[in-house]
Amino acid sequence: MENFLIIIFSVLGFIFLLFSIVIVNQKQAKIIQRLGKFQSVRRAGISFRIPIIDQVAGVQNLQIQELRVPVETITQDKVTLKIEVAIQYLIKADLDSIKNSFYELADSTAQIESFVFDAVRAEVPKMELDMVYENKDNIANTVMEGLNSLLSNYGFDIKKTLVVDILPDAKVVDAMNAINEQKRLRQAAEEKGEADKILIIKAAEAEKESKKLHGEGVALQQMAVLKGREKAIKDLTVGTNMAIKDATELVIKLIDQETLISMGDKNKNVIFMNPGIGVGGKIVEGMVAAETINQHQQN
Protein backbone atom coordinates (compact mmCIF):
# COMPACT_ATOMS: atom_id res chain seq x y z
CA MET A 1 0.00 0.00 0.00
CA GLU A 2 2.75 2.38 0.96
CA ASN A 3 4.58 1.61 -2.28
CA PHE A 4 1.42 2.33 -4.20
CA LEU A 5 1.05 5.73 -2.50
CA ILE A 6 4.67 6.53 -3.22
CA ILE A 7 4.11 5.77 -6.88
CA ILE A 8 0.98 7.91 -6.95
CA PHE A 9 2.70 10.86 -5.31
CA SER A 10 5.69 10.44 -7.60
CA VAL A 11 3.48 10.53 -10.68
CA LEU A 12 1.58 13.54 -9.36
CA GLY A 13 4.84 15.27 -8.55
CA PHE A 14 6.13 14.61 -12.03
CA ILE A 15 2.92 15.92 -13.58
CA PHE A 16 3.05 18.98 -11.29
CA LEU A 17 6.66 19.65 -12.33
CA LEU A 18 5.83 19.08 -15.97
CA PHE A 19 2.96 21.55 -15.94
CA SER A 20 4.99 24.12 -14.03
CA ILE A 21 7.60 24.43 -16.80
CA VAL A 22 7.24 27.32 -19.22
CA ILE A 23 9.36 27.19 -22.38
CA VAL A 24 9.44 30.25 -24.64
CA ASN A 25 10.93 30.27 -28.13
CA GLN A 26 13.27 32.93 -29.45
CA LYS A 27 11.52 36.18 -30.54
CA GLN A 28 8.40 35.26 -28.55
CA ALA A 29 6.89 36.33 -25.24
CA LYS A 30 4.28 34.50 -23.17
CA ILE A 31 1.72 36.28 -21.03
CA ILE A 32 1.23 34.62 -17.62
CA GLN A 33 -2.00 35.23 -15.67
CA ARG A 34 -2.56 34.23 -12.05
CA LEU A 35 -6.17 33.48 -11.31
CA GLY A 36 -7.23 35.63 -14.27
CA LYS A 37 -4.98 38.61 -13.48
CA PHE A 38 -1.81 39.61 -15.31
CA GLN A 39 1.15 38.19 -13.47
CA SER A 40 4.24 38.39 -15.71
CA VAL A 41 5.81 38.19 -19.16
CA ARG A 42 8.09 35.24 -19.83
CA ARG A 43 10.77 35.66 -22.49
CA ALA A 44 12.86 33.19 -24.48
CA GLY A 45 14.13 30.29 -22.43
CA ILE A 46 12.76 28.13 -19.58
CA SER A 47 10.91 29.34 -16.49
CA PHE A 48 8.36 27.98 -14.00
CA ARG A 49 4.78 28.73 -12.95
CA ILE A 50 2.32 27.36 -10.47
CA PRO A 51 0.13 24.83 -12.25
CA ILE A 52 -3.61 25.53 -12.28
CA ILE A 53 -3.12 28.89 -10.54
CA ASP A 54 -0.85 30.36 -13.23
CA GLN A 55 -1.93 30.05 -16.83
CA VAL A 56 -0.38 31.03 -20.17
CA ALA A 57 -2.92 33.56 -21.44
CA GLY A 58 -1.29 34.14 -24.80
CA VAL A 59 1.85 34.27 -26.92
CA GLN A 60 3.09 37.45 -28.55
CA ASN A 61 5.25 37.27 -31.69
CA LEU A 62 8.15 39.76 -31.48
CA GLN A 63 9.29 39.25 -35.08
CA ILE A 64 8.63 41.76 -37.86
CA GLN A 65 5.27 40.80 -39.33
CA GLU A 66 3.57 41.78 -42.57
CA LEU A 67 -0.08 42.42 -43.09
CA ARG A 68 -1.45 42.97 -46.60
CA VAL A 69 -4.60 45.04 -46.84
CA PRO A 70 -6.54 45.25 -50.13
CA VAL A 71 -8.52 48.49 -50.43
CA GLU A 72 -11.09 49.34 -53.08
CA THR A 73 -11.46 53.06 -53.72
CA ILE A 74 -12.16 55.62 -56.47
CA THR A 75 -10.00 58.39 -57.93
CA GLN A 76 -10.88 62.01 -58.58
CA ASP A 77 -11.53 61.21 -62.26
CA LYS A 78 -13.95 58.44 -61.24
CA VAL A 79 -11.73 55.42 -61.87
CA THR A 80 -12.29 52.46 -59.56
CA LEU A 81 -9.06 51.07 -58.14
CA LYS A 82 -7.96 48.15 -56.03
CA ILE A 83 -4.89 49.14 -54.00
CA GLU A 84 -2.94 46.62 -51.95
CA VAL A 85 -1.02 48.07 -49.00
CA ALA A 86 1.63 46.03 -47.16
CA ILE A 87 2.17 46.93 -43.49
CA GLN A 88 5.40 45.72 -41.89
CA TYR A 89 5.29 46.03 -38.10
CA LEU A 90 6.49 44.51 -34.86
CA ILE A 91 5.62 44.53 -31.16
CA LYS A 92 8.24 46.31 -29.08
CA ALA A 93 10.17 44.04 -26.74
CA ASP A 94 9.72 46.04 -23.50
CA LEU A 95 7.32 44.84 -20.81
CA ASP A 96 4.71 47.58 -21.17
CA SER A 97 4.55 47.21 -24.96
CA ILE A 98 4.07 43.44 -24.79
CA LYS A 99 1.41 43.84 -22.07
CA ASN A 100 -0.47 46.66 -23.83
CA SER A 101 -0.41 44.98 -27.25
CA PHE A 102 -2.06 41.92 -25.70
CA TYR A 103 -4.61 43.52 -23.38
CA GLU A 104 -5.49 46.89 -24.93
CA LEU A 105 -6.40 45.80 -28.44
CA ALA A 106 -9.03 43.13 -28.89
CA ASP A 107 -8.10 42.49 -32.53
CA SER A 108 -5.01 44.41 -33.65
CA THR A 109 -5.18 43.07 -37.21
CA ALA A 110 -8.74 44.25 -37.76
CA GLN A 111 -7.95 47.67 -36.28
CA ILE A 112 -4.90 48.10 -38.54
CA GLU A 113 -7.00 47.16 -41.56
CA SER A 114 -9.71 49.66 -40.59
CA PHE A 115 -7.19 52.47 -40.33
CA VAL A 116 -5.62 51.58 -43.69
CA PHE A 117 -9.05 51.60 -45.33
CA ASP A 118 -9.79 55.03 -43.89
CA ALA A 119 -6.38 56.55 -44.77
CA VAL A 120 -6.30 55.29 -48.36
CA ARG A 121 -9.90 56.28 -49.06
CA ALA A 122 -9.16 59.75 -47.71
CA GLU A 123 -6.10 60.29 -49.94
CA VAL A 124 -6.83 58.61 -53.27
CA PRO A 125 -10.09 60.47 -54.11
CA LYS A 126 -8.04 63.72 -54.11
CA MET A 127 -5.95 62.46 -57.04
CA GLU A 128 -6.47 61.52 -60.65
CA LEU A 129 -5.36 58.08 -61.83
CA ASP A 130 -1.94 59.16 -63.12
CA MET A 131 -1.25 61.00 -59.87
CA VAL A 132 -2.01 57.88 -57.84
CA TYR A 133 0.83 56.05 -59.60
CA GLU A 134 3.16 59.02 -59.20
CA ASN A 135 2.32 59.55 -55.50
CA LYS A 136 2.09 55.98 -54.23
CA ASP A 137 5.07 56.60 -51.93
CA ASN A 138 3.29 59.61 -50.43
CA ILE A 139 0.19 57.48 -49.86
CA ALA A 140 2.30 54.83 -48.13
CA ASN A 141 4.03 57.43 -45.94
CA THR A 142 0.69 58.94 -44.93
CA VAL A 143 -0.59 55.52 -43.87
CA MET A 144 2.64 54.77 -41.99
CA GLU A 145 2.63 58.05 -40.06
CA GLY A 146 -1.03 57.60 -39.12
CA LEU A 147 -0.55 54.02 -37.95
CA ASN A 148 2.48 54.92 -35.84
CA SER A 149 0.55 57.75 -34.23
CA LEU A 150 -2.39 55.45 -33.52
CA LEU A 151 -0.60 52.28 -32.39
CA SER A 152 2.64 53.42 -30.75
CA ASN A 153 0.92 53.73 -27.34
CA TYR A 154 -0.18 50.11 -27.64
CA GLY A 155 3.31 48.73 -28.15
CA PHE A 156 3.34 48.54 -31.96
CA ASP A 157 6.13 49.92 -34.12
CA ILE A 158 5.29 50.36 -37.85
CA LYS A 159 8.54 49.73 -39.71
CA LYS A 160 7.45 50.15 -43.32
CA THR A 161 4.33 50.73 -45.35
CA LEU A 162 4.31 49.94 -49.07
CA VAL A 163 1.75 50.35 -51.82
CA VAL A 164 2.57 47.08 -53.56
CA ASP A 165 -0.14 47.01 -56.22
CA ILE A 166 -2.51 49.40 -58.00
CA LEU A 167 -5.13 47.66 -60.13
CA PRO A 168 -7.61 49.77 -62.13
CA ASP A 169 -10.65 48.24 -63.78
CA ALA A 170 -9.76 46.01 -66.76
CA LYS A 171 -11.40 48.41 -69.25
CA VAL A 172 -9.32 51.27 -67.87
CA VAL A 173 -6.15 49.20 -68.22
CA ASP A 174 -6.99 48.45 -71.87
CA ALA A 175 -7.64 52.15 -72.53
CA MET A 176 -4.35 53.14 -70.87
CA ASN A 177 -2.45 50.58 -72.94
CA ALA A 178 -4.06 51.90 -76.14
CA ILE A 179 -3.12 55.48 -75.23
CA ASN A 180 0.47 54.49 -74.48
CA GLU A 181 0.69 52.56 -77.74
CA GLN A 182 -0.53 55.59 -79.71
CA LYS A 183 1.98 57.80 -77.92
CA ARG A 184 4.82 55.45 -78.82
CA LEU A 185 3.67 55.26 -82.45
CA ARG A 186 3.46 59.06 -82.65
CA GLN A 187 6.91 59.44 -81.11
CA ALA A 188 8.32 56.88 -83.55
CA ALA A 189 6.76 58.75 -86.48
CA GLU A 190 8.14 62.05 -85.23
CA GLU A 191 11.61 60.56 -84.84
CA LYS A 192 11.48 59.07 -88.33
CA GLY A 193 10.28 62.36 -89.82
CA GLU A 194 13.08 64.22 -88.07
CA ALA A 195 15.64 61.71 -89.35
CA ASP A 196 14.29 62.00 -92.92
CA LYS A 197 14.42 65.79 -92.63
CA ILE A 198 18.06 65.68 -91.55
CA LEU A 199 18.92 63.36 -94.45
CA ILE A 200 17.23 65.69 -96.97
CA ILE A 201 19.01 68.74 -95.54
CA LYS A 202 22.37 66.99 -95.58
CA ALA A 203 21.80 65.80 -99.15
CA ALA A 204 20.86 69.33 -100.24
CA GLU A 205 23.91 70.78 -98.51
CA ALA A 206 26.13 68.16 -100.16
CA GLU A 207 24.63 68.89 -103.59
CA LYS A 208 25.08 72.62 -103.05
CA GLU A 209 28.70 72.16 -102.05
CA SER A 210 29.27 69.82 -105.00
CA LYS A 211 27.84 72.35 -107.47
CA LYS A 212 29.85 75.11 -105.88
CA LEU A 213 33.08 73.15 -106.19
CA HIS A 214 32.18 72.10 -109.73
CA GLY A 215 31.49 75.71 -110.71
CA GLU A 216 34.74 76.86 -109.18
CA GLY A 217 36.58 74.13 -111.05
CA VAL A 218 34.96 75.08 -114.37
CA ALA A 219 35.73 78.74 -113.74
CA LEU A 220 39.37 77.97 -112.99
CA GLN A 221 39.56 75.77 -116.08
CA GLN A 222 38.09 78.48 -118.28
CA MET A 223 40.41 81.05 -116.77
CA ALA A 224 43.39 78.81 -117.50
CA VAL A 225 42.25 78.41 -121.10
CA LEU A 226 41.88 82.17 -121.47
CA LYS A 227 45.29 82.74 -119.94
CA GLY A 228 46.78 80.25 -122.39
CA ARG A 229 45.16 82.00 -125.36
CA GLU A 230 46.27 85.35 -124.05
CA LYS A 231 49.86 84.13 -123.78
CA ALA A 232 49.76 82.65 -127.28
CA ILE A 233 48.53 85.95 -128.76
CA LYS A 234 51.17 87.91 -126.83
CA ASP A 235 53.89 85.60 -128.07
CA LEU A 236 52.71 86.12 -131.69
CA THR A 237 52.49 89.89 -131.42
CA VAL A 238 55.83 90.26 -129.70
CA GLY A 239 57.81 87.62 -131.60
CA THR A 240 56.50 88.30 -135.12
CA ASN A 241 55.22 91.88 -134.82
CA MET A 242 51.80 90.57 -135.89
CA ALA A 243 48.84 92.80 -135.19
CA ILE A 244 46.69 91.85 -132.23
CA LYS A 245 43.67 91.29 -134.44
CA ASP A 246 45.55 88.99 -136.79
CA ALA A 247 47.18 87.12 -133.94
CA THR A 248 43.77 86.66 -132.27
CA GLU A 249 42.18 85.36 -135.44
CA LEU A 250 45.05 82.94 -135.94
CA VAL A 251 44.77 81.55 -132.41
CA ILE A 252 41.00 81.17 -132.73
CA LYS A 253 41.37 79.34 -136.07
CA LEU A 254 43.88 76.95 -134.54
CA ILE A 255 41.51 76.30 -131.61
CA ASP A 256 38.60 75.76 -134.01
CA GLN A 257 40.63 73.30 -136.06
CA GLU A 258 41.66 71.43 -132.92
CA THR A 259 38.04 71.33 -131.76
CA LEU A 260 36.90 70.11 -135.19
CA ILE A 261 39.44 67.31 -135.20
CA SER A 262 38.51 66.29 -131.62
CA MET A 263 34.79 66.26 -132.35
CA GLY A 264 35.29 64.39 -135.58
CA ASP A 265 37.24 61.68 -133.77
CA LYS A 266 34.45 61.24 -131.23
CA ASN A 267 31.49 61.37 -133.65
CA LYS A 268 31.82 60.95 -137.44
CA ASN A 269 28.34 62.50 -138.00
CA VAL A 270 29.19 65.92 -136.53
CA ILE A 271 28.95 68.90 -138.89
CA PHE A 272 31.08 71.80 -137.71
CA MET A 273 30.12 75.35 -138.69
CA ASN A 274 32.65 78.10 -138.04
CA PRO A 275 30.93 81.04 -136.28
CA GLY A 276 33.92 83.30 -136.49
CA ILE A 277 35.93 84.54 -133.59
CA GLY A 278 33.04 84.01 -131.15
CA VAL A 279 32.69 85.13 -127.56
CA GLY A 280 35.84 83.38 -126.33
CA GLY A 281 37.89 85.13 -128.97
CA LYS A 282 36.36 88.48 -128.13
CA ILE A 283 37.24 87.98 -124.44
CA VAL A 284 40.82 87.01 -125.24
CA GLU A 285 41.15 89.90 -127.68
CA GLY A 286 39.86 92.28 -125.04
CA MET A 287 42.26 90.93 -122.42
CA VAL A 288 45.23 91.29 -124.80
CA ALA A 289 44.15 94.78 -125.81
CA ALA A 290 43.91 95.84 -122.19
CA GLU A 291 47.36 94.41 -121.51
CA THR A 292 48.78 96.28 -124.51
CA ILE A 293 47.27 99.57 -123.32
CA ASN A 294 48.79 99.01 -119.87
CA GLN A 295 52.23 98.42 -121.39
CA HIS A 296 51.98 101.61 -123.49
CA GLN A 297 50.97 103.61 -120.43
CA GLN A 298 53.89 102.23 -118.43
CA ASN A 299 56.31 103.14 -121.27
- The counted number of beta strands is 8
* Helix content bin: 55-70%
Look at the structure and name the CATH superfamily of the largest domain.
Band 7 domain
Q: Within the CATH hierarchy, at the fold level, what is the topology of the largest domain? A: Tetrahydropterin Synthase, Chain A
How many discrete structural domains?
3
Shape, principal axes of CA atoms: rod-shaped
Membrane topology: Single-pass membrane protein
Protein name: SPFH domain-containing protein
Keywords: Membrane, Transmembrane, Transmembrane helix
Organism: Marinifilum breve
Give structural notes.
It is found in: Membrane. Residues 19-180 form the Band domain. This is SPFH domain-containing protein. The protein is α+β, with helices and mostly antiparallel strands and 299 residues long. It folds into three domains: 2-60, SH3 type barrels (Roll); 65-168, 2-Layer Sandwich (Tetrahydropterin Synthase, Chain A), CATH 3.30.479; 222-298, no CATH class. 61% of the residues lie in helices and 21% in strands. It is built from eight helices and eight strands; from the N terminus they run H-E-E-E-E-E-E-E-H-H-H-H-E-H-H-H. It has helices at 2-20, 95-103, 108-123, 129-134, 136-151, 170-240, 244-266, 278-298, and strands at residues 21-24, 28-34, 37-42, 45-48, 54-61, 65-74, 80-91, 156-168. The chain has a three-stranded antiparallel β-sheet with strand order 3-2-5, covered by helices on one side. Strands 6-7-8 form a three-stranded antiparallel β-sheet. A hairpin with a 2-residue loop joins strand 2 (28-34) and strand 3. Helix 3 crosses helix 5 (136-151) and helix 6 (170-240) crosses helix 7 (244-266). The longest helix is centred in the last third of the chain and has 71 residues, at 170-240. The radius of gyration is 53 Å and the shape is rod-shaped. The chain starts with a helix and ends with a helix. The model has no long low-confidence stretch (mean pLDDT 79).
